[in-house]
Amino acid sequence: MGILIVIAQRTLYGLLLLLAVLVLNFTMINLAPGDVVDTIAADMGGASAELIAQIRAEYGLDQPVIVQLGNYIWRVFQFDLGHSYFYNRPVTEMIFARLPATLLLVFSAQIFALVVGILLGVFAAQRPNGLLSHIVTFFALFGYAAPVFWTGILLLIAFSLKIPLFPVAGMRDVTVEGFFPQALSVAHHLVLPMLTLGSIFIALYSRLCRASMLEVLGSDYVRTAKAKGLSPRDVTMKHALKNALPPVVTLAGLQFSAVISGAVLVETVFSWPGLGQLALTSILARDTPTILGILFFSALVVIVGNLLTDLVLRLIDPRVRAKA
Amino acid sequence: MKIAVFRDFAIAAGVAALLGTTTMAEEPVRGGTLITTLPQTPRHLNPAGQSGIVTGAPGAQLFAAPLRYDEDWTPQPYLAESWAWSEDGLSMTLNLVQGATFHDGAPITSEDVAFSVETIKANHPFKTMFGVVDAVETPDEHTAILKLSQPHPALLLAMSSQLMPIIPKHIYGDGQDPKSHPRNGQDVVGSGPFKFVEFTADQQVILERNDDFFIEGRPYLDRIVYRIIKDASARAIGMENGELHMTTFENTVRNIKRMSENDDLVTTDEGYAAIGPINWLAFNTGSDGPLADKRVRQAIAYAIDKDFILNAIMLGLSQEARTGIHPGSPLYYDGVNAYELDIDKANALLDEAGYEKGADGTRFSLTIDHGNPTTKPQAEFTKASLAKVGIDVTVNSFVDFPTWANKISNHDFDMTWDTVFNWGDPVIGVHRTYDSQNIKEGVIWSNTQQYASERIDALMDQAGQEIDPDKRAALYKEFQEILAEDLPVYWTNTLPYHTIYNKKVGNPPLGIWASSSPYDLVFLKE
Fold this sequence. Notes:
The complex is a heterodimer.
Chain A: H1 2-31, H2 36-43, H3 49-58, H4 65-77, H5 91-126, H6 131-145, H7 148-162, H8 179-217, H9 220-227, H10 232-254, H11 256-269, H12 275-285, H13 288-316, H14 318-323
Helix pairs in contact in A: 1-13, 5-6, 5-8, 5-10, 5-11, 5-13, 6-8, 7-8, 7-11, 8-10, 8-11, 9-10, 10-13, 11-12, 12-13
Chain B: H1 2-19, E1 33-38, H2 53-62, E2 67-69, E3 75-77, E4 80-85, E5 91-96, H3 110-123, H4 127-130, E6 133-140, E7 143-148, H5 155-158, H6 169-172, E8 194-200, E9 204-209, E10 223-228, H7 232-240, E11 246-250, H8 253-260, E12 265-268, E13 277-283, H9 294-303, H10 306-313, H11 343-352, E14 364-370, H12 376-387, E15 391-397, H13 401-409, E16 415-421, H14 426-429, H15 431-434, H16 454-465, H17 469-486, E17 489-494, E18 498-502, E19 505-506, E20 523-524
Parallel strand pairs in B: 1-10, 14-15, 14-16
Antiparallel strand pairs in B: 2-3, 4-5, 5-7, 6-7, 8-9, 9-10, 11-18, 12-18, 13-16, 13-17, 19-20
Helix pairs in contact in B: 7-8, 9-11, 16-17
């Protein structure tokens, strides 16, 4: 029954967190000078004072901030995230159109980073002071330290320009018809953005996995397993890795928010049509309903991601189950 | 660049001569899909209520205007087969092409022209375009007469490109707000050479050939795909690896330089004279400080080495602009004071204005607020330049547009680097900066310098109504001379906008409206 209580508890915390996200961000956006009408006017190449006042009145931006906040929260309670000022479309519609692209990118990058990170970590832990271990550390840290957009452009120059294997931008080839060819086209377009976004997190996961593996490999039961005559491979994969994983999974869960913010830059470099690009546009345009809608959904993804992490942890580590 | 184009032309001519052919221009070919780009997602695709280049580019394909322009600023017939001013300059008669239809098959009539003018007048941000049009008379289906309250020569440019799209009354006249009409972005029904297929935000706009276009045999292309790619480097790589055929409005000089070295690509700055983007250093002439004195503003101009901006910051890719009118415009006058670098003169002017150097070598302090990140190098260069004449400058960066716009438009600044667009006729995009009636708090790109001159106001009034081109040019000459003396802003250069196209592209849009011209002549060579 423990699991249901955990879920209920998490859901309640999650709702409170969502409310806090909305109120805080609404206030912060409104503290900054200027509003979306300035951007709309600029986008038009300049506008008259009358037109500016007219647009402001249309969007209710001439009302006091507290009234605007109240109206907004009230609408959210009715599951209405409002209309984008800038694109003049329902926010939920715009977000749902982009959410799949972001989820695909975020989850594939996360899985890619985890798989590669864990493998590298396990590998490096075999000979912690060997040359290969240092090489792994070097490349992992390099990927971590390099700015995402730089890595992205570098990969583009290498694999789109010099060796033209992958397309430069977008999510699919518009000329391709049919489900499977389209899925293939999406996968083709996904490779570089996934590598770019994943490269930051490989370092984290591989370093942690290495440390965790080293600790476990030095423990008594591993020595026992070795003494029993198990092959080194079995010792590493079956006995040691399983116990070394929980910290890595915990970290991966905590990194969900970082992956999503990393996606903003990656999506811009690769013109990946996800939430990140929309977020950037809306922030620059001061399009409050869209920004809040995106933050709402990002918070939701993080909450769900953390919940999933907890569940996975319970699955792979019986000790967590016992504690609850 | 012009030189590169010229070289290619010379080679082509040489090859043609070798082959013994007499025709130099290639015969257009039907068919093919042009892949080009937009740097942002447009708010929608209907230019009747939305200005800007990302709406204008597809907008000019979807909607035809009465006139179009060639490279030499000469109006050409388009949806209007002929046009005429009345003697007194108070009415403009348009004779529409016979048999033209909208994309849904309905005929294009003078009623639609009248409706379009009313819609644009009521909803477009550029109020000066059709502000003086009192009524549009429609004596018959193919004749529309625009009645004006005063002569308005700017009307000719305002009737071209994206500024006057002819939109169907039976679609957009249903009473919904034209600025947020649902058919602006989906199921768009237009009058131009290409029809709407798809618009997906952050991904692409797809248009296809209008088989019933009113010019027989055109357009040549089957499709145009605008891929929305925000990152300039990604667009450059896409051009280099052949994924894109053409990109317009590029202004990242390093990327342009790199693309210009590619043998498959042609790089040119032709086509941006009407849009006319000009970089300038604006002064708050209404502040209490030293900038209210024109000698101080002149001294600042003398202290800034314009050649450094042109050659080191812009890598020689932008043109010098000595006034607020784009150097590509027939109304540009380059005989004004160019403020060549002269530190001694700058010091002398500052002394004369009563700002002697203090004990620490400093005369006074000022701030520069820059918004657009592309103007950051200019702002930093200004700080270094003005230090040499004893002016201490603090540079404030505002990458967040609304914050910057709010500060400038409420006159809470000393100096700012900015880029402002001419948008065709000076009446539309130039007057607004210097008109003393247009000092309006909270409105960006109004007269935020708070400059007021009775003579300038009078000149703008006269020039705005002068039908005779020579007399008009003379008025604008005096206008530019006075402004270059008073210097409410110090103009330095044009924005280095470039069109880059693959050599496969025939007839690229190099007329005065760049990518906001109809692409009915563009074709792909095979």
